[in-house]
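worker-3 :: picked Glycosyltransferase family 2 protein
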Amino acid sequence: MTKISGLVITYNETQHIRACIESLLQVCDDVVVVDSLSSDDTAARATAMGATVIPQAFLGYGPQKNHGLAFCKHAWVLSLDADERLDADAIAEIQRLDLVNSQYDTYAFRRKNLFHDKWIRCTTWYPDHVRRLFNREKVRFSEAQCHEKVESAAHTELDSHIIHYSFSDYHDMLHKLNKYSTQYAEDNIGKKKRVSVWSPPLHGLFAFLKNYFIKGGMLCGFDGFNISLLNALGSYFKYAKLLEKQRYTGGKP
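worker-3 :: tokens ->
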């Protein structure tokens, strides 16, 4: 099996870091943790488990992960968020991959998003493909402050899974919705992406219809409705905040 480096970025992840590194060590012999100057013992726990810990003030999600790539020992990198774990099927599939002769430079996994310890199999939360195994000598993460992804043309999707302990409760979802929508606006204001007064409501409405009707949120009861609604609000406020910046800050980030 080709040697693989694991990569994680962290900030105050005491609750998750041990299980995340244990998961990576199932297929990696090298783990790099880029820590955004945590105030808890995240860095100490990671170091105790044999990870290489790189202190770095937060640069944004994409730049932070790209910063960590230089410290990885191997060409192939498996990137997990601290609240993610490899499912058993992903471990088995990674062990079977012939990465030396691969025609791909990126592999995506299906992500099981858990909420209240329940796998949400509806809305855009599943299958939620995420590119996490890649050749760092050929590809990198986008420089986006939020919702970064590995930029690749030669990629494929695997049927195996990553488990994601996504949000602890609705309060946590609202908090992250606010953070991510702000970061989206900051990412796109510099690109001169123009939006109109119709952009927020239309994007929000489409997001709700897609999540609740097309992606089956109606089949997931109370959580399905609320997740569809919050996804719609997230889409609405991404464009509302971008419009706000264009109108009232002179187009400056």
